[in-house]
Amino acid sequence: MRLYFRLFTLFFMLLASTYLYPQYFRSDTLFSPPLKIPLYLSGTFAELRATHFHGGIDLKTKGEIGHPVYATADGYISRIKIQSGGYGKTLYMTHPNGYTTVYAHLDRFTENIRSYVMNYQYSVQRHEVNIYPPKNKFRFSQNELIAYSGNTGRSGGPHLHFEIRKSLNQVPQNGLLYNFPIIDNIKPKVYHLALYPKTFSSHVDHTFHKKIISLNGLSDTITIKSAIPVHGHIGFGVETYDYADNSANPCGIYSMEVDFNGNTVYSCTFDEVSFSETRYINSFVDFEEKQHQHIKIQKLFRDPANELSIYHHLVNDGIIYVDDSLSHNVQIRIDDAYGNRTVILCDLKGIPQDTIYQPQDSNIVETFHPHQANSFNLRDISVSLPAKTLYDSIYFTYFKLKDDNNPWSDIHQVHKFTTPAHTYFTVGIRPKTTIPEKWKSKAVVCLISEEDTSSVESRWENGMLIGRTRKFGNYTIKIDSLAPDIKPLSFIKDKNVTGDDKISFTINDNMSGIDSYNGYIDGNWVLFEYDAKNNLLFYEIDDTRLKKGKKHDLELYVSDGQQNIATYFANVYY
């Protein structure tokens, strides 16, 4: 069997050497595929996610769980992590070549690892664990079976999330640069081009507002037919995605460059992105368009407080300047990791402009700047932002909406939900009436959106309830006194579960979310696993720990973020 795997790997390496090498392939390190099925991509490195750049590559598993996952090089398991969300069941493997590989959303591990993890979970009485086994505990050779693919954690469907990191600093690397047998002959597609006036004296197409041009995404050389009139400091942006052969999934691109009058003024390359930098995606994209229109325009300029290290050539942070009446040409080049390129060509026409834009919002109360601490205070509201919470200067807005249905608080509009925040800041609200002492510990600051109401970490300070958050928007005070909801799933009290493999429940919480969960049978802790994306809590019946042929007492305790505890008791027969 091992000989077969080595021949399989050699075959794909030979195949890759003929026509599958990524354009920027790193020849110093070779990894074999983690799956022994054809590799099709459902996600690429640095793909744009909600609050981060994707840290690995996602490999399709035919819509199925249970495909064997193999070590991509000799090494040892250095970390095992299990989460109810996030990566779910995950293995980290350290290799002597200076890299660590990560295998995430797994369904299950090999039996020796599974048994080791379960014993650890029972010893600490916790489902979610983060284990660092001894160095020689689990050693594997290249192409040796280590796990099976799955759909655990926040996975959106069965697949294998695979990462390559530098072991020294755990910075994820672009996995497409390591010679895996993936075919990509498709050029990136572009759906929107954006132009941004960057000062109050700048304009695009005779307005002081951004201009977004729709493109069809079908051509690999896109020419904007009419010259765009501009004046002053201008930035560019594109909505663009890459696609690979045999996959319809829109993926991330590898690099982008902007030339102005033949000179490069901007370039970025996604070779690696550290976890300490990944939230800067909120500055890298046009956050306003993402929130309003649900499109992801990548800005081809850098905001003042954007500290991403992906930029390799910047002139004036990628912002061009036009103060004449001449014609100027712009070329934007977009590449994927396999050397497929799409080019956008457009002309700019300089025109005079001597007026200054004046913001008209009557709710503007302060000017906040990114490199300093900022605050706003009234009797019943306090907002405090540490330095570098913002990516650029803003006109901070505030407005209070009267809420007769809430006895504790009105609604405080703390700036605009279309403005991103990088670090945590605080929103303090003074209740409009005294909250009874019995409810004070259950009071939380809540963010109200069109979709839902969610609480944030809250504390009392000098008569104000202080919430810790990373989002602007509408805030109020609510009382979270309801315990989570527990509902049996295909299970009834006094049931005989002989022949069943699981005891399952759905659990939900309306505000502060599920915080902890513990199950006991006959007074002994048992391993209930929580699948957060499906609100599913289940116990896989373990006949090595559960005696057969008798009645058992089942107890279940589920707590939310405000320590409201729900309980469920039942007899089960096994």
Task: Briefly say what this structure is.
The chain is mainly beta and 574 residues long. Helices cover 8% and strands 43% of the residues. The strands form six sheets. Strands 12, 13, 14, 15, 16, 17, 18, 19, 20, 21, 22 and 23 form a twelve-stranded mixed beta sheet that branches. Strands 1, 2, 3, 4, 5, 6, 7, 8, 9, 10 and 11 form an eleven-stranded antiparallel beta sheet that branches.
- What share of the residues does DSSP label as strand, in percent? 35-45%
What is the CATH architecture annotation of the largest domain?
Distorted Sandwich
Helix content: under 10%
What is the average per-residue confidence, as pLDDT, rounded to a whole number? 94
**CATH superfamily placement of the largest domain:** Glucose Permease (Domain IIA)
- What multimeric state do the chains show? single chain
Write down the CATH topology of the largest domain: Glucose Permease (Domain IIA)
Structural class: mainly beta
- Any idea what the radius of gyration is? 27 Å
Major β-sheet profile: 12 strands, mixed
Q: How many DSSP helices? A: 5
* Number of E-type strands: 43
Which of globular, elongated, flat, extended, rod-shaped describes the shape? flat
The number of distinct structural domains comes to 4
